[in-house]
Amino acid sequence: MIALLLSLAFAEDMDLSVLDQAVGVEPFDAPETDEAIIAERTQAIADGLRCPVCQGMSVGASATDAAVAMKARIEELVRAGYTDDQIVDYFAERYGTWILLAPPKEDNALVWLGPAAVAGLGLAGVIGFAVVAGRRREEAPAPDVPQDAYTERVLKELDE
Q1: 0.85 exceeded by the pTM?
Q2: What CA–CA distance (Å, rounded) separates 38 from 7?
Q3: Residue among 109, 122, 82 nearest 91 (CA)
Q4: Of 36, 59, 67, 89, which is most buried by a Cβ count within 10 Å?
């Protein structure tokens, strides 16, 4: 898996038309030429992507060969005039949504709704247990064992 990811990250000689086919859009007519804007956009996009090697860091913060290659690819796409969304979609198409440090909520509904569902089920279980236990207590018949005078007096005092 890592070998596949690294081979994709190092595919610098790949034609940009592959990106057009993957994302389904053409780049802007005017490629970016301002170096400060290119560097800023490249860093911003790289900060939103997960490094395929160290996975706990962003591509922008990682110094691995794969991250450096991905950052170079991001810069190349920025220079070619692609939008930030197009570039992010390119990497998501290639690696899957796990490459995004903040995956979209609609792709992970179970992750977002799972804890709430488990808490709701737990609360329902506690309430159900309390109801059943309360019914059992009400249904328990009083013992018909004859009581001696002392026990009857103590029980009478407790009822008052």
Answers
A1: no
A2: 25
A3: 82
A4: 59
Alpha helices for 81-160 (secondary structure H) = 84-95, 109-139, 149-159
Cα–Cα distance for residue pair 64/30, rounded to 1 Å: 32
Residues 78 and 22 in one domain: yes
Query: Can you read off the two tokens belonging to residue 74?
Result: 């991001």
Work out the angle at residue 22's Cα, subtended by the Cα atoms of residues 17 and 26, and round it to the nearest 5 degrees: 50
What 3-state DSSP class applies to 69?
A: helix
Give me the residues paired with residue 58 across strands.
Answer: 50
Residues 124 and 55 occupy one common structural domain: no
pLDDT digits (tens, 9 = 90+) for 43-90: 999 999 999 898 789 999 999 999 999 999 999 999 999 999 999 999
The Cα 16–Cα 18 span in angstroms is 5
Count Cβ atoms below 10 Å from residue 27 Cβ, excluding itself: 20
Q: Which two tokens stand for residue 90?
A: 């390119």
